[in-house]
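ok so heres the complex, two chains, lmk if somethin looks off
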Amino acid sequence: MRIEKLIEAANRKKLDAIVATSFENVRYLSGVAIHTQHLIPQRLAALIVPVSNADPSFVVCTIEESLIQQESKIRNIIGYHEFKDSPIALIAGVLNDSGLPRGKIGIEMNVFTARQFNELSQYMPNIEIIPVDDVFDQMRMIKDPEEIQFLGKISTVTDNAIRTAYETAKVGDTEIEVLHTLTSILIENGAESLPFLNLGAGKNEVHTHPNAGKYKLSTGDLIGCDVGGRWQGYFSDLARTAVVGKATQHQREVYKNLWEIHEDILSAVRPGVLASDLYWHCYKSFEDRGMKLSLSHIGHSLGLVLHERPILSPAETLALQKGMVLAIEPATRDSSGKYHTEDLIEVTEDGYRLLSRSADWSELLVVG
Amino acid sequence: MRIEKLIEAANRKKLDAIVATSFENVRYLSGVAIHTQHLIPQRLAALIVPVSNADPSFVVCTIEESLIQQESKIRNIIGYHEFKDSPIALIAGVLNDSGLPRGKIGIEMNVFTARQFNELSQYMPNIEIIPVDDVFDQMRMIKDPEEIQFLGKISTVTDNAIRTAYETAKVGDTEIEVLHTLTSILIENGAESLPFLNLGAGKNEVHTHPNAGKYKLSTGDLIGCDVGGRWQGYFSDLARTAVVGKATQHQREVYKNLWEIHEDILSAVRPGVLASDLYWHCYKSFEDRGMKLSLSHIGHSLGLVLHERPILSPAETLALQKGMVLAIEPATRDSSGKYHTEDLIEVTEDGYRLLSRSADWSELLVVG
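and the predicted structre for the whole thing:
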């Protein structure tokens, strides 16, 4: 189904074949999450899809062959021996066998390395290479109902993990102890890896990406996190801010303003709205409260990649569409600390649906 | 110091400048771990080192500027606004300002994407681009004493996490429960992320990269894992095999043979030995026991990258040198399951030093 849609897109671009080499697009087309694609990038895995033939070929390291046989319907598996065979030579072989020594071949130019590009050009001097990153981005941008349900599930698990970690934190606990509670819940809920775990309190909280350490929570500290787990290749990504012991009036007010902005952005979400307009809507919402938006983006889509298009930035050209998911994440900072909120939503026919909220975050949570 | 060494290497190659864009080499040269480099690859960070000037320039997204100001001595920081400015244009600007519009520029061709390569070539049509992946690989290959100590520390933590998870596992526990104990110890010891967590028991144990699930440990099951955490950008990576309840004679024997092979590989480690010869030494060690080595490599170096050179494979051309670290990981499988052991060692003047072992693994561990 996805391969048929890819072939339609390739035909519109008058391509003869598309070669996918990224973790995300190989996963998207084949259903197999080959994690070594992002852990060991030189262990190339490629899916070659000729437009004349909905029966693609899978060039993979022999180490991954059994995984693919088990989890994918793709039967043309061409294994290469790592450090011995060149996977690029095998890709060229498939293209030649498909009668495409002079074909127009779509490649992910943001993923294919300069060396791979040179090597493929040497094996196949007469092909024309066309970038197809946008073809894949636009396919993956509209999520299937199953993907939306799954992203909602792992986002809610993540929100609950953060909430539980905050609610059980006590004055004197270390940042690592809070993170431990949080990661325990992600692991218990089947996360296959924990790719980013930014958490900090007090003076560490203000950093963009703090690492949890031995700092002990103290009354009045802000505590913040921006964390994600990965399940079957899909990311969760949520940021939440709380305060330890008790909040000052100022902290409550800054948070309240940020939350109103957060909700104001959500209220502007519907199909047809430009992603860039959502950014400017947020910009104005900051201004209306006498605040200044200093972020270059206020959110992004996510899925098999942490930051997918549309990016909610002034430069984004895309309009929102039904079936997109968006991580909305305004943030602000002043001398009292950094305040950051994040929710995952689905763009629906007439607005949005929250996917990530396990609890009420409308007021600054006081913990400990 | 590292930058001076890089400039010496660049001079030997008659280069005018080197541009580093990978997480590992930017981290290695600057001391700053910019994790978004691997999480959000389009958010480019580049270190530009002209050979005429040991004062490099850092082109980074404004989001990362405060991190760099705080953690690095590099003062020439050129921030770009994400989605607005082109970081490649800024790199070209630095090269032009350094008087190098026709320079020989070293680039990591295994990291630089085909699109970045094209864009840089358009801005600077008269530069000559030279691959320098090997320059960096060979620099990072010999670890500093501090790196060796650090890799030993995080490897021992990981070994202890596996050992504790195995020793506290009981018949009826799920794979996830065992993984939970393991990851708890990694997080408590300050891991900043957990990039790969392969763990399986019984029928799941045989997969190359199993995901822990709800399968319950049963007497006679093999349990195996291949896991790693990340600290300040550095990886740990260990695989260990145990058995639940009690072992069969056959299981004990296969494990005993594998362990003898493991120790036999270690005994062959010393400076001057070819990495490929270590592979063949292992091959013969399998044969001597009536077994067949079916792996394409039996280990690898690691550090800021999970698989670094030298790779212990027939194709590797490098000889071992003092100061290298090696993950030695023979494995075998038969109808009774998969057996996999792994240790991290340092190559010393006259042999090796174990870096990873927190306990005795010489006999098949019986757990539960």
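quick notes: The longest helix of chain B spans residues 145-168. thats all i got rn
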